[in-house]
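Pilot study result, target chain (178 residues):
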Amino acid sequence: MSDEFVAFPKIARLARQVIVTEKIDGTNACILINEQGEIRAGSRSRWITVDDDNYGFAAWVAANHTALLELGVGRHHGEWFGHRVGKRQYGLNERRFALFNTSRWNAENRPACCEVVPVLYDGLFDTAAIEACLDDLRLNGSRMVPGFMQPEGVIIYHTAADSFFKKTMPNDGAKGKI
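Predicted structure:
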């Protein structure tokens, strides 16, 4: 063990802003755009290509290259979902890409080929507000695909901690009885 001093990390305050979005059941996807306008497609854990694809995401990125350049230089994470992707599939006959960064993207400023995960709550951390979001999804169904009555749950982004948390339905991933 090294005797080099390691500072204790700063602790974020819990009562800070959170953004709660609908958790989409699909496969994690990433688009990387470099300074030269070259685009790469990725999954959660690797770069993918049209020849070594992940549910057709790399092929979709290649087909939408020009429109996706509107995202700008950087990494753009989201969920690739729909027909034959994930358990839910949302009753869709096509596949869609929804961006995660709701602070940057919305219905007005995104490329037409992309969607943005729906924001369900934006305010101070409040477990009652998060539970209300889950109750709304249970009662009214998906906001991502209106009419789909089996949404997966929510993602909670804690801005001060710069961390994501999830709550899924119906049992939040619990094993056995609660």
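One observation from the pilot: The two ends are 41 Å apart (CA to CA). A full batch analysis is planned for the follow-on phase.
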